[in-house]
Amino acid sequence: MKAPGSIRARLILWAGALLLAFLVGAGLAVQRAHADSVRAAHYARLQSTVYLLLAAAELDAQGALVMPEGLAEPRLSLPGSGLYASIRQVDSGQSWRSASAVGREPPFRREQAVGEWRFETIDAAGRSYLGAHYGVRWAGRGSQARLVLSVVEDSATLARELAAFDRTLWTWLGGAAVLLLLAQTLLLDWALSPLRRVAQEVRRIESGEQAAIEQAYPAELAALTGNLNTLIQQERVRQTRYREALSFLAHSLKTPLAVLRTALADPQRLPAAVTEQVERMDHIVQHQLGRAAASGSAAFVAPLALAPVAQRIVDSLAKIYAERGLSFTIDCPPDLSWRLDEGDAFEMLGNTLDNAAKWARRQVVLRVRREAGPRLRIQVEDDGPGFSDHERVLQLHVRGDERVPGHGVGLAVVKDLVDSHGGTLTLSRGSLGGAWVDIALPARAAYASTQA
Questions:
Q1: DSSP codes of every residue in 313-357
Q2: pLDDT at residue 45 is higher than 60
Q3: 270-293 and 254-263 are packed helices; what angle lies between their axes, rounded to 10 degrees?
Q4: d(Cα 392, Cα 273) in Å, to the nearest integer?
Q5: Edge-to-edge strand ranges of the sheet holding 95-97
Q6: What local confidence, expressed as pLDDT, does residue 292 receive?
Q7: pTM attached to this predicted model
């Protein structure tokens, strides 16, 4: 699959194309509107000239057309001025032409219906003209005649006027396009600069120059950079957990191996020593594997419904401890979900409930609820003897050996999981008189945003 090009280049290209298309479209619309307006103005002037001719025309007693020597429009008296006029008597065939038409053959109209105007563009003798024509029945001194008044103008004047406007229009639009493209490029560079800074920081993280994304970014990128930092932190925590697990495992197995090595010299003690030390090593391995597998921060997992998980665990424990007749109570809203890895949920709930079931006399209670903050609260209590040494139980996971059956491995794994989620785990005596385990897990930023 071909990799996409630069976002900057694509934005500039398409934004520039749209800008140019808009300016060209606007320029053509303005050009067309101006041309129509100027042409209408020229026709209006030609119509005014027709009215001027009507005001000056007279018929004598014989019905002949009489025109004054001079007219109010000076261009009609100037030969070759570009404005030409004609009045034709349709019945007699006689006609009058303005002095400007001397030596020229403008395309005057010979027929026109009485009372109707006609405006047109006429091509004749290789030139183009604008014409205004009007037909009228004129009454004079005891006579009347049907007249056709025709005024034409060389369109070169119109063409020069339009050309001057077009040059000005496209010059300004071209300059505006250059300035807008430059401003647009600068604006895009400024708008995309946070992306370039993010890329630079990621390269520095890859090269080991810095540990996380440190700069502040706009709201559109803040979620991305926050999640990147969370992902980086998760990976580092996971790597640290694996290294520590291997280190603790190597250290913790030294003592059982030394005991087994010593037992080899005393064959009578060997079977008991092997059984004891193998069980001890099994606990150590389980604990360290649990620590290494802890998912920790859960910003990128889907919300998990907790009630079904709790019910599955309780159903399994009820079968395991069926002969003791324990009563399990679950207080968890059926619609409660949390952004938590399913494996972590089973480890937390399973180990705490299993620990409570081992020491309970008759009753185990699980409470799960969402609290303000937001945070998830998990509480497990039983009616057993309770914890004899709270601090020692919570610190067992640090040494990785000398675990107490029923408290050691399970609660140590739970403590590691809670710590990896940034939560707290508290041990005390509950209302039932036995052990009380209280877990509080804060919501990750990514999860909190989805719940807002």
A1: HHHHHHHHTGGGT-EEEEE--TT-EEE--HHHHHHHHHHHHHHHH
A2: yes
A3: 170
A4: 26
A5: 95-97, 83-89, 144-154, 127-139, 117-124
A6: 63
A7: 0.52
Least confident of 27-31, 244-248, 381-385: 244-248
Residues 406 and 356: their CA atoms lie apart, in Å, by 9
- Residue written as tokens 């209590």? 381
* Phi, then psi, of 9 in degrees rounded to 5: -65, -40
Nearest CA to 50 out of 142, 141, 131 is that of 131
pLDDT greater than 60 at residue 403:
no
Number of helical (H) and strand (E) elements in the chain, helices listed first: 10, 14
CA distance 158 to 155: 5
Note the pLDDT of residue 389: 62
Tell me which of 172 and 67 has the higher pLDDT.
Answer: 172
In 3-state terms, what secondary structure has residue 271? helix
Enter the tokens of residue 10.
């694509």
Q: How confident is the model at residue 401 (pLDDT cuts 50, 70, 90)?
A: very low
- 3-state DSSP assignment of residue 140: coil
Nearest to 375 by CA among 437, 438, 310, 292: 438
The answer to whether the beta carbons of residues 19 and 181 sit under 8 Å apart is yes
Angle 402-403-409 (CA atoms, 0-180°, nearest 5)? Answer: 140
Phi/psi of residue 257, each to 5°? -65, -40
Domains of the chain are: 9-161 (3.30.450), 208-233 (no CATH), 298-451 (3.30.565.10)
Residue 6 pLDDT: 78
